[in-house]
Design brief:
By secondary structure, this protein is α/β, with parallel strands linked by helices. It is 15% helix and 30% strand. It contains six helices and 37 strands.
């Protein structure tokens, strides 16, 4: 191994992963227990960096190493891939079919718009590659990633002891951090593993079918019904019914209502009795809004629900149709089904939208984050301002 760090390069995947990547690097997307960059750090045992568009660059540190491993940022690591990467030499690039995976580079030669690998010797990778190319890949690959991530944790840590007030079905893994609390709940591991993070709580009466992850400082409220493969990221509160969904973190769905085949960003709030459809009435393939093509594209999925960008909120009794995409910092409320694509900084519902005033949106973001003792920094404000200034809101 001839590198001392690695860099995740966003250019191959970022646009198709909007709106989730409007506010973050691709490497900061959570699937399974960890974010993509955290996974690579654990496999490669070195620090990772991100190469992102200019408006996001102030959020991320630069890599100052002499030689680093450059990785296409949506690629998910596994043991076979890591072993192949470790065999790379300078001026070689690992490829799968026509797509590049990784190469050894000097960080000074790389920018967001520049990939110095066209003249490199190509090394073909013979095994399959898991990759987050579109937002729905996050929930379709979540079960596999939960199992891989729990195995990583089990190599270096010991599980705590589950309280005897709980009922366990099956012989799958349950890894509970010692500071977590779980009482009087049913945990079914016949289809996978369960991870319960530090200082998290599963309140009494919850019913959980693995695979499932509850992140640190998160709460599963009384009587919640969880179907795998589901991840609730850190510092989140969840109640009601969830099925094959990923909440990135710092978001709440604290009340009854259904969330299925969905990805929810950070700093989101779903009002009481919010529901999303994840299956069309005619059982047809679901289409979803694609930002680079500016049109709805086929997902290849029969079950596909809601994608919601950071800082978006919805009021009580909100109903989202199958395959709905919501941008960053939108506020949705009222009766009826809003349209299937809601741009960033939209304010309204089924009766129409107007532009969400920027100063009001920033004030709400600051208030929401301060409740968890986190500051809305000038860097984060500038990112939201950039998104506001580059978003075209189609008003009804």
């Amino acid at each position: 191994m001839q590198f001392e760090s690695f860099i995740l390069h966003d250019i191959s995947n970022r646009e198709n992963l909007l709106p989730l990547t409007l506010t973050r690097a691709v490497g900061d997307l959570r699937v399974g227990i960890f974010t993509i960059i955290e996974k690579w750090e654990k496999y490669l045992k070195c620090n990772g960096f991100n190469i992102v568009p200019e408006y996001l660059q102030p959020k991320y540190k630069n890599c100052n190493a002499n030689m680093s491993l450059l990785i296409s940022s949506g690629i998910l690591p596994d043991n076979d891939l890591v072993e192949a990467i470790k065999l790379l030499k300078p001026k070689q690039v690992l490829v799968k079919d026509t797509d590049w995976i990784a190469a050894l580079v000097c960080p000074n030669d790389v920018t967001y718009d520049t990939l110095p690998i066209n003249s490199f010797e190509t090394i073909s990778y013979k095994f399959s590659v898991s990759e987050i190319k579109y937002p729905w890949n996050i929930f379709t690959l979540n079960g596999i990633e939960i199992e891989k991530d729990i195995n990583l944790i089990a190599k270096t840590s010991n599980s705590g002891i589950l309280s005897p007030t709980n009922t366990v079905i099956g012989k799958g893994k349950i890894f509970i951090e010692k500071s977590a609390t779980v009482e009087a709940s049913i945990l079914n591991t016949t289809q996978g593993s369960i991870y319960i993070g530090a200082n998290s709580e599963i309140m009494e009466g919850c019913m959980i079918r693995a695979p499932f992850v509850l992140g640190e400082h998160s709460t599963l409220k009384m009587g919640a019904k969880i179907y795998g493969a589901t991840t609730v990221g850190p510092h989140s509160k969840v109640g009601g019914e969830l099925n094959n969904s990923v909440i990135q973190g710092y978001s709440n769905k604290a009340h009854d209502g259904f969330l299925g085949n969905a990805v929810i960003g950070e700093w989101c709030n779903l009002g009481a009795d919010t529901n999303n459809s994840n299956l069309k009435n005619n059982y047809a393939e679901v289409k979803m809004w694609n930002y680079p093509k500016q049109q709805f594209i086929k997902t290849g999925l029969q079950f596909c629900g809601l994608i919601m960008g950071d800082h978006s909120k919805c009021g009580i009794n909100t109903m989202f149709n199958t395959g709905t995409v919501v941008g960053v910092s939108s506020n949705i409320f009222g009766s009826g089904y809003p349209r299937n694509y809601i741009p960033s900084f939209s304010w309204g519902g089924a009766m129409g939208f107007k532009t969400y005033n920027l100063s009001d949106a920033l004030e709400v973001a600051q208030l929401v984050m301060s409740r968890r003792n986190i500051e809305l920094t000038e860097i984060e404000k500038n990112i939201l301002i950039h998104i506001f200034n580059t978003t075209i809101i189609d008003k009804n």
